[in-house]
Amino acid sequence: MASAVHELTPAEASAHPPAESIVVRFAGDSGDGMQLTGGQFTLSTALAGNDLATFPDFPAEIRAPQGTLFGVSAFQINFGSTAIETAGDVPDVLVAMNPAALKTNVEALKAGGLIIADEGEFGERNLAKAKYATNPLRDGSLAKWQLLAFNISQLTLDAVKPFGLGNKEALRCKNMWTLGLALWMFDRDRAPIIDWLKAKFAKAPVLAEANIAALNAGHAYGETAELAGPMKQHHLAAAPAEPGLYRTVTGAESISLGLVAGVQLAGVKMFFGGYPITPASAILHHLSRLKEFGITTFQAEDEIAAIASAIGASYAGQLGVTSSSGPGIALKGEAMGLAIMTELPLVIVNSQRGGPSTGLPTKTEQSDLYQAVYGRNGDSPMPVIAARSPADAFDCAIEAVRIAVQYMTPVMLLTDGYIANAAEPWLVPNMDDYAPFPVEFLEEAPEGGFLPYARDEKRARPWVKPGTPGLLHRIGGIEKQLGTGNIDYGAANHQAMTEMRRDKVLGVKVPDQEVELGAAGGKLAIVGWGSTFGPIHQAVRRARKRGLDVSHIHIRHIWPMPGNLGALLKGYEKVLVPEMNTGQLKTVLRDQFLVDARPLNKISGQPFMISEIEAAIEEALA
Amino acid sequence: MNEMTPVAKTLPKDWETDQEVRWCPGCGDYAILKAVQRTMPEIGARPENTVFVSGIGCSSRFPYYMETYGFHTIHGRAPAVATGVKLANPDLDVWIITGDGDALSIGGNHTMHLIRRNLDCQVLLFNNEIYGLTKGQYSPTSHVGTRSPSTPFGSLDRPLTPCAYVLGSGARFVARAIDVNKNLPAVLKAAHAHKGTGFVEIFQNCIVYNDDVFAPFTDKANASGSQLWVEQGKPLLFAGGTKGLTLDTEKLVLKVVDVVDGDWQAAHVIVHEQTNKAIAHMLVEMPFGPFPMALGVLYDDPAPTFESAVVAQNAQASAGKKPDLQKLLSQGQTWQVEKQPHAM
Amino acid sequence: MTFVVTDACIRCKFMDCVEVCPCDAFCEGENMLVIDPNECIDCNLCLPECPADAILPDIEDAAAPWIELNKVHAALWPTVTSNAGQTPEDAEAFKGVAGKVQYFSADPGKGD
Fold first, then answer.
1. What's the half-sphere exposure (Cβ side, CA atoms, 13 Å) at A447?
2. How far is CA A170 from the centre of its chain?
3. Which of C39, C28, C29 minimizes the C-alpha distance to C3?
4. B51 and A466: CB-CB below 8 Å?
5. Does residue B344 have a pLDDT over 50?
6. Distance (Å, rounded) from C-alpha A178 to C-alpha A184?
7. ipTM of this complex
8. Measured CA distances, B281 to A509, B173, B254, B268, B287 (Å)
C-alpha cells in the first residue's frame, strides 16, 4: 500500500484486502501530456513484469482552455504482482499537476492516499479557474490525505536551464520530471524511457536531452530529497505469468491485428472503409499502415460511403470491413440491411461510447446492444460478438471474420471506448496455433446449373467474384427468390426467405457457454458482457473468498447465444446483469430464456467499480 | 479464363437477360437499354468483366436487364458501392446507373466525391426531372412550379443543372444525350473510352409523370433549332448551320449569331475544343430558350484516376516489406517472461 | 427482341401506333406498316393502341411468320412518325378480316 504513516483500520483492511498492487492516477491539463506520461509509465511497468490495466480518461475537447475544470485529462494505472483485471476502483496515489486536476480527482482518492501536487501551478489565476477560494495546499482542506507539494515547475526549469529552451518549451518537460519521480517511487528502470525520448526527438536532439535531464532530475529528487513519511520507494514483485513473449496492446491495436490475422486465415484480402469518429479512428489509422498485408483502406466521405464501399468490395471478392461508434453505426443501418439481403460477408466494428446522439464521445458505455441485435428495418438478424478486453478483442476479430465468410453474412463486433484505449500486457499469440478457414470462391457452375441463392449445409450462398465467366448474375436489396436469387414479391417466398435468413443466423455454430468463476448452478450468477469483465471478475473472486455462493458468467456471443446458456442460467436461483446501459442484455436474456434476470445499471461514462458489484452481490444474497 | 483465345465479338442480343422488362410502356429507359446493349459489342466489352451498379429508382432497375454482373444497391449510394467494387478489382468495367433523384438528391454527396476522386467508370444519369418510381414527386432538376403530389401548388426550389454540378465537382468528362436520339451510342462509347469518370446526362422521358417535359428541344418540330450537338474541332452550329455560338467579349457570355451562307468564320463562331473547361462551363450554363441545349461530348480532358493512384500507393508502401504477421504481432516494446517470474 | 406488325394491319393502317411510338420505329408501306427491328426499343406502347390487334412481340409464336417481312420491308420503306390521314376510308370494313395476305403490297408508302 502507498501509505507508511496511515494505520489501516480493520474496516478498511477488509474493504480493501492488502493486495500487492497500487493504483496511480496522473491528472493535469489536457495540454500537459498526462496521457503520454501515463503511457510511458505503463511501458516501464510492463517491462518490470507487473500485471497492469490502464484507464485513460480524456476530456471531449482537443485542447480546452488551460487550467479549466473541463480541460482536465487523467490517466490511471493499476499495477501489481497479482492478476490485475481492472484499472482500480480508487487511486492510491494522485499526481495533480494543477488545481483543476486536484479539484476534479481528489474526492476519488482513497482515505489516507497520497497526493503529489505541483505547487508552482497553484497561483491565484489557476486557483480561480478551478474555483478554489483559498489554496488547498495550505488551508488544511486536504487533511484526510497525505500531501507532498513541491514546485515541479521550478524544479523542471532548473533542470533544463543548461539547454536554453524558451519558457513554454521548458515547462513542457514537466511531465518527464514527474515521470522521473514516479519511476523512482516505484523502482522502475529509466532506460526504456530514455531510449524512447531519443527516438521521439531524433530530429531535435536538444529537446531529447532536455527531456532526459528532466526525467533524471525527477528521479534524483526522489532519491536524494529528504522527505519523511510518504515519499518512499515501493517494491512490487513481478506478477506470475505464463512464460512467453509479451507486449502491451490497446483494444484498437488488437482489433486491427485480429482483423489482419482473420483475413490471412481466410485467404482473402481486406478492404476497410472507414470514417473518423471517436473512439474508433485508431483502427482506421492502424490498418492504413499495413498495405503489405493486402489491405486497402479508404477514408470515405461519410459513414454510409464507408460501409457501402466495404459492401462493394465484398461483392467483388475481398472481405469488406467497416468500423465506427454509435452515431456512425446508426447511419450504416440501411446498408447493413443490404448486406443481409444480398448475403455478403462484412465485419462491422462498433467501439461504443456514451450516447445517445453525440453523447459523451470520450467516455465509455455499452448501450448499443439493442442496436446491434435489433436495430435495422425488417427482420434483419445478424451475428453479434462482444470483446471483453484488449487481448480478447484479437480473438473476437478473428471469430467475426470467420463467421462472416463462412455464413455469408455481416457480423457486428462490439467493443467500447474503454477497451479501445486501455492497455494491458498481452502474451503474443503464435499464429501456428490458429486453424485456417480458407474461403472457396465458386469458379464454375455446379452440376445442375448455377443458382446464385443456392444453399450449403450452413445455409450460406456461394461467393462469386465478378470477372468469373459463366456465373453472371444480378443481386440487390429487393426480396430474392430461393435458389435463383431473382426478384420475387410472392407471399410464400417472402415467408420462406425470412425464415431462411433467421435460421441461417440462429444456426451459426458458437461454442457452449462456460462459467468463468464458480459453479454451473447455485444461488447467484453475475452475467456480464464486454468490458465489465474486469470488475465483475474481481468482485466475484472477492465474494467467493468470503464464502459467498456466487458465480461469474461472461458472454461473448450475444447473437446467436450459446445453445446451453438457457439451461445454465436456469440452474441459479438469481441472475444479476451488471451493464453500462439501462438493461439491454438483461432484456435479451429474459426474452430468449424466460429467466428472471435482474439489472444492475451504471450509465455514468465510467467503468464499474469492483465495490459496486460487491455491494450488489451482498444485497442479492442477503 | 484462357486469355490467349480470341474473344468472339458479342451481339446486342448477348447482353439481354431473360427477365421481363417492367418499365412503363413508352418509357425512355427502353431506348437507353437498347442503346447500351448496342454499344457493348462496339467497345469490345466482355459480359463477365462488366458490372452495372445502380441505386434506387426506375433507372436503377437497369442491371436486371443486362446479362452482366449487376448490383442493385440502395438509394443514392451506388457511387460508394461502385468505388468499393473498383478498388477491390480495378480490372472490372464498372457502369453506374442512376437518376436525377438518386444521384442529386440523396446521393448528391456521393456523386460529388466519386467525380472529385475520378474513379474510372461510367455514370449514366437518367434525368427525367421527376421521381418516377415513387409516383411523381418533384426532383432537384424539376422546373420551378412543378405540380406534383408533394408540391400540389407548384415546387419552389431552384433546380440544379447536373452537368454544372459535376463540372464544379471536378469532372473530366461531361456529356449529354437524349434517350431516343441516335447519337446516344456514340456518346456512351466516348464515355467508356475516357479513362476516369465518364459522366453522361441522358434526358429521359417519363411518359407517366412528366411526359414531354423535354419537348421544347426533343420534338421533331423543335429539334433542329434547339439542339446543338457539339463535335470536337467543329464549329458550334445549330439550326441546320444557320445559327452558331460566339463569345460576347464585353460581357464574357455566349451569344447566338446568325451564320450566312455557311460562313461561320465571319460570324466568329467558336470551334469546340473538348479539353477547354471554360467552353464546357458556358455550354452547360446556357439558359435554354434564348440558347439551344448543348448535347454530345461537352468536355473530355482526362486526369489520373483514383483507383490507379490507390494501386500505385499500395504497391509503393508495400515495396520491400514482407507480410509477416507473426512479426507484426510482436512489434512494439516487448519483454520475455521466463519460467520463473524474476524478483524485483 | 422486337415487336412486329402482322397481316391484321393490311388495308387497315389505323396509325394509332405511330402516334405513340417514342422512337422512329414505324415504316410505311402502301397498305400496311412494319416495325424496324433496329429501331424498336420494346417499350410496349404500341401494342395496346392498335384497334386491329395487329402488333405482337416477336417471341410469341403467332409473330414468327412476320419477323422476316418486317425486317426486309423496314429497310425498303420510309419512316413514318405521324398520322397524316394515311388510314384508308374502308379500314373498319377490313378490321378482323382473315386472309388479308393476298392484298399485301410491297410498294412503299409516302412516309413523313
1. 0
2. 34
3. C39
4. yes
5. no
6. 10
7. 0.93
8. 59, 12, 11, 19, 12
